[in-house]
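Researcher: Go.
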Amino acid sequence: MKGGVIAVIAILAVFQLAVQHGQAVTCGEVDVSLMPCINYLIGHDSSPSPACCAGVKAVKGMASTTADKRTCCGCVKAAANRYTDLKDEAAQSLPTKCAVQLDIPISRTVDCTKIN
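Model: Structure:
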């Protein structure tokens, strides 16, 4: 009986992950993930924090399809344009400094429709 309950719980956990994986990316999710990066991006910190890099990794994980990548790109672009004091060099170096290969450029001017 105990083994059966554990098996059911495991199956439900896998199902929950599968359902969540199929959901569309939102700008709210992207913004929350990258919020810890603001101090680095506006020049208050000399390097991105561990929380920032975890957020960059989270965004990479969200962007699994072309549609998701374009959505994330648009969200990142909109966020970049909200911060007038954002340092372009810091934004462009963020993925490298966090050791994440991000397929989404962090830029105010990127054409997100060209993201594959």
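Model: Residues 25-104 form a domain with the Hydrophobic Seed Protein fold (CATH 1.10.110.10).
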